[in-house]
Every structure is written in structure tokens, then in C-alpha cells.
Amino acid sequence: KFATAGQDYAVRYYDEATKTLQTTLTGGYGRTKAGHSNRVFSLKFSAEDENLLLSAGWDNTIQVWDVRTDVPARSIFGPHITGDSIDLFGNYV
Fold first, then answer.
1. Checking DSSP bridges between strand 52-57 and strand 61-66, what pairing results, if any?
2. Distance CA 43, CA 55 (A)
3. Quick one: pLDDT at residue 52?
4. Which residues contact 34 (CB under 8 A, 6 or more apart)?
5. Which of 2, 16, 36, 73 has the fewest CB atoms within 10 Å, measured from its CB?
6. CB 55 within 8 A of CB 65
7. Could you state, in chain order, the average pLDDT of each consecutive group of 10 residues for the chain (93 residues)?
8. E-assigned strands of the chain?
9. What is the pLDDT of residue 29?
10. Count of CA atoms in the C-beta half-sphere (13 A) of 75
11. CB atoms < 10 A from the CB of 9, how many?
12. How far is residue 59's CA from residue 68's CA, in Å, rounded to a whole number?
């Protein structure tokens, strides 16, 4: 598994074995579901749960995604992330 993100506010989740796009995680400003509303700079997979992915960026949020769904499981408001600076240790971000 691997994921990409960038200036289009979307997180794309791929299957590494087949190199195919599995899902696109979107939402945010002007949309009916939660998600990013500005550029995404940082992604981090959970070491404990292969379906858990965190993303963060210029919109002052960290989105906690379950890649089996297309909506964030949680949103953390406040952090303004401008680089690859997000980490996950157990239940701590």
C-alpha cells in the first residue's frame, strides 16, 4: 500500500502489488462530507492498523481516514502542517 496527496486536496490510496488506484479520499470546502479544504502536505500510515491513514496540510486539520470508507473517521482541528511533519505513535499524533 502507498498513498499520494498534494495541491488538489485529495488523498489517493494505491495497492502496491498491482500499482492500481484503490480509492480517492476527498471532501472538505464546498463538499457535503469532511475532508481537506487546502493543499495536503503530509501522510502517515498507522503501524498498528493497516487501514488507518493520517493526512495533514494547509487547512489546519489532520484527517484520520479509514481507507475502507471514503470519509474521515476523525478530524483534528488546529495544526497547520507545511511539510512532512506528522507522526503516529500508538494513540498519539
1. antiparallel
2. 5
3. 93
4. 27, 28, 63, 71, 72, 75
5. 16
6. yes
7. 90 94 81 82 92 93 90 90 86 86
8. 2-5, 11-15, 20-25, 40-45, 52-57, 61-66, 72-77
9. 59
10. 15
11. 23
12. 23
How far are the Cα atoms of 11, 20, 49, 77, 88 from residue 85, in angstroms, in the given order? 16, 27, 20, 16, 10
Closest-CA residue to 88 (of 62, 67, 69): 62
Give the pLDDT score at 32: 66
The closest of 54, 38, 21, 41 to 84, measured between CA atoms, is 41
Q: What pTM did the predictor assign? A: 0.88
Contacts of 48 (CB under 8 A, 6+ apart): 90
Residue 56 and residue 41 in contact, taking contact as beta carbons nearer than 8 Å = yes
C-alpha to C-alpha distance for 84 and 11, rounded to whole angstroms: 14
